[in-house]
Amino acid sequence: MSKAPNPKIFKPMTQKKSLQFLLLGLLWLLFSIPVITCGAATCAVFYIAFKILNDEEVSGIFKLFLKGIKQNFVQGFLMSVISAITIGGAGFFIWWILKESDRGLVLILLALAAVFVVLVLNIFTYPMIGRYENTFINMLRNTVALSFTYGRQTLRMTGFVAAALGIAGALFHLNPLAGFASLLFWPTVIFYIVSSFMAWIFYKVENPIKYDENGDPIETETENETENQNKEIES
Description:
This protein is mostly helical.
């Protein structure tokens, strides 16, 4: 496993990185057509996305994508089954509530909470499978732990993803042709949003703050490098 990307959300995108993310989105669409490979394809996207964000040399994206599918196929498939069940269940719950206008505020809030939980589950688990090697049960446990530990970033990331999905849904509603055309782009946008936030979270997990015997934080090598760079800029 490569080192975690630098802890900065939404790094500036170069033309090369933008094209690489666009290619990942198109590959995901292609390999999701058989349905059974959809979960593994999602894991493969994040397997490569973190390398791109970490400024690693990524050559042969198609070959790397196939490698990501192969090594994450079983867990990706299991996660896709869970995704289908949770998303389908949340969708049915919302449909049931909207079917009658007198369901009450409590049920509406429960529906929103259910959608939020489903989004968090699906947003966190695929990137974790793509980056780490662990048992599937531990992946799910870590998903819960990280989503609570980094609650603020979880809310922000989920909000961005929900907004992107809302825009895509609005396009389909206003103009089905425009909606289908947007399929070429919105997976790329969502993958970039999620991988950027998750890269920040993974960095914090893999580079925990250390404290001395007095309880004061010990500066890490990265922090020292950043401080030196700032001094060079100021001078």
